[in-house]
Write a structure and sequence with these properties.
Helix content is 24%, strand content 25%. It is α+β, with helices and mostly antiparallel strands and 63 residues long. The protein has a single domain, classed as Alpha-Beta Plaits (2-Layer Sandwich), CATH 3.30.70.20. A two-stranded antiparallel sheet has the order 1-4. A hairpin with a 5-residue loop joins strand 2 and strand 3. The longest helix has 10 residues. The structure holds iron/sulfur cluster. The site of iron/sulfur cluster (SF4) has 14 residues, from helix 1.
């Protein structure tokens, strides 16, 4: 299964991914981006986040 992954060291916390794909990305209490645990991830939505991430730190990972 493919799962999105974030290179947290590069993330600038702009929250664009949270805006374009809130079913997957959210900001946690510590102020970092969390990825929801899902059986399947919506490809369009995650791809949109990947395209719009200014730090280019979101990618797909194979499980
Ligand atoms: S869009 Fe990229 S840089 Fe912005 S919060 Fe999400 S992962 Fe971080």
């Amino acid at each position: 299964m493919r799962k999105p992954s974030i290179e947290m060291g590069d993330c600038v916390l702009c929250e664009i991914c949270v805006e374009v794909c809130p079913q997957v990305f959210s900001l946690n209490d510590l102020g970092y981006v969390d990825i929801a645990d899902r059986k399947q991830y919506p490809e369009d939505c995650v791809d949109e986040a990947i395209r719009n991430c200014p730090a280019r730190c979101i990618s797909w990972e194979e499980d």
